[in-house]
Specification:
It contains four helices and three strands, in the order βααββαα. By secondary structure, the chain is mainly alpha-helical. The chain has a three-stranded antiparallel β-sheet with strand order 1-3-2.
Amino acid sequence: MPEDVLPVDFVDELLDREQASAYLASIGVRRRPATLAKLFSTRSDGPPCIHDGRKPFYPKRQLHEWGVRQLTQLRRSSSERRRAMREEELKGFLERP
């Protein structure tokens, strides 16, 4: 599912970490609340959130978009990803001026 396509019954709201973890699981992305906390505090590639005091809340639309980007396309083997990466690198190299 492309990240800009939302489920028909989608309702935008703010989710706490427990709810965000449950929502991600519903779209096939398994991240525990502790993992979401770690992504926020130690890395810069986690889902965006806002804070009310010390409590984080995740806007559901942005959480959905982030979660969908975490999923890969179907693959038949682990080498398919490496092959696709090499092809992209080669394409970028050939397109250089």
